[in-house]
Amino acid sequence: MIVNANAHPNDAILGKEIADLGLASYIDDLDTNGFTVIPPAIANPNYLTERMLSICQDIAEERNGNRPDLEAGRTRQDTPVGDTLKALLLEDPVFEEALMNPALLAASTHLCGYDVVLSSLAAFFKGPETTPFFLHTDTRLPSPQPKQPLLCKCIYALTDFNRETGSTAFVPGSHKWARNPEPHENQIEGNRDAVPVYAPAGSLIVFHGSTWHGAYSRQVPGIRASVHLLMVRSILRVTEDFIGRVPQEALDRNSARFAILTQQGVVPGYIDKQDEVEKVMRAMKHVSAFEQESGVSLPMKR
Ligand SMILES: [Fe+2]
């Protein structure tokens, strides 16, 4: 029997989660290609994406005064990402479900560990446009980048993603190069290395933070809708600050992992020793609760 001296006890727990969810081949995709498409049968329990789409349309209407028309609507054309709805987690419990989706958690954990936290949760509505979305990585470091992922992106396709609807483009295997594309490499149109992702509504697209990606322009009428979760290792600075902002009822109705995912186990910057002690004690309460609940060990203790 070969014993892997580098194996961590968390690996066995995650391996069981992946097997139980039927995710093994999608995790292989992630390792080989740097991205995967988890199909609706696994990624979309209880019509999650249909409910998210309806709620995102409600929020857009409330915030912007008009409801996105998925069949014939248009969005901003001066950006390839269209219209965005930022900071959605605390808007409706459906986004807690999106974060706690076991398939999303298993894939994110495979890439970034059990200490992974949510950095941002936003919706995107993308209508017809011709603005190129150049290839880039989401790991905002100069080349060379670390081989080990620091972050990953999870995208729920709320409508169909394909070449004509303006899907994400990926360069398969580019995460292994651990570098950013050079300017002469970052075009999508006509790039033989870039491929469109095909993901029917209800799918979950997951990719490694160093995978080269961009997006095709939408060529057909109507709007492509998606919800994006940026997941990062707990040591990184986050985009949205959730520490101390998550209502107690949201913490109560979810497992202890939800607190970890919403940064409650992270010790924020302190101003003096007493402040440090208070912040560490608060964070460690959540870390210990999750460790007891799951059997995993987290690297957050300092
Ligand atoms: Fe990106």
Automatic annotation (TrEMBL):
InterPro entries: Phytyl_CoA_dOase-like
Signal peptide: none
Cofactors that this protein relies on: Fe(2+)
Pfam families per record: PhyH
Listed SUPFAM superfamilies: Clavaminate synthase-like (SSF51197)
One annotated GO molecular function: 2-oxoglutarate-dependent dioxygenase activity
Protein name: Phytanoyl-CoA dioxygenase
Organism this protein belongs to: OM182 bacterium MED-G24
